[in-house]
Please model this.
Amino acid sequence: MPKFAYFKGGFVSIQDAKISIMTHGFNYGTGCFEGIRAYWNGEEEQLFVFKLLDHFERFLRSSRILLMALPFTAGQLADITLELVRKEGYREDTYIRPLAYKADEVVGVRLHNLRDEVAIFATPFGRYIEREEGASAAVSSWRRIDDNAVPARAKITGAYINSALAKTEAVLNGFDEAIVLTCDGHVSEGSAENLFIIRDGALITPPVTENILEGITRKVIIELAREELGLEVVERPIDRTELYVADEAFFCGTGVQVVAIAHIDRRPVGAGQIGPIVKMIRDLYFDIVRGKVTKYLHWCTPVYTSAP
Ligand SMILES: Cc1ncc(COP(=O)(O)O)c(C=O)c1O
Model:
């Protein structure tokens, strides 16, 4: 359990970081959030936060869509986060959750003329999907929210009912994860992660206009695949049945990290186990996020200036 939170402009005990049942964000889902991971590197006795600034830049973009004008820069939010994690003193993999929400205790659905608050907590966290090396996925009967209804580009708290419906359907049906189609029937993403398939050695992923969250991990993978692995990466719409004929497939995201998909709708993906390209990407990703690759150390922010 975390001991502290950033709440109402300062650091408080986690027990004191409470909102009212009347809080607007709780009633109407009028908030946005981030999910950030920090990785413990035992050799260096250091906790590295991955892509810290990128997350807060997206956080501020989400908040703008919700008509918020938060009085912070991404850099200021990053500094608050580092101070919070330092106070916790974690020496293990950690998940950081910043939230911005409409804080007034009033009845009435809207975005305007409401006070915004920022809260942050950080908690130890392991795997999001247990079978990271070969998960099973099912195409969901739920469709992905549409940009003109609930914008998926913003990480909006209320929008996650769409993810929850898809995830629960998949898990209760015996699968690890859902693959959600757009209303047009193209592949969008997983319930809380982006998706890539591999065909003939090329990575293919839906473009940002397919109602995906513009994933930070997705961007990292695209860059690494091109720059480090010399692979072709194509952003284009994906048909459902391309999932069934792909050589390899994987989910990626801060929470799921890089998860190989071994089966989709009970059909084996390739050989029905993690393939060589996904394995390479996974290995490289985990080395980088733990701060083990000098070239990409600038993606990792150290939490501690001296040993915790
Ligand atoms: C719906 C959805 N798609 C994709 C992602 C992956 O995004 P990122 O790599 O920025 O964590 C997430 C997780 O944050 C998500 O919730």
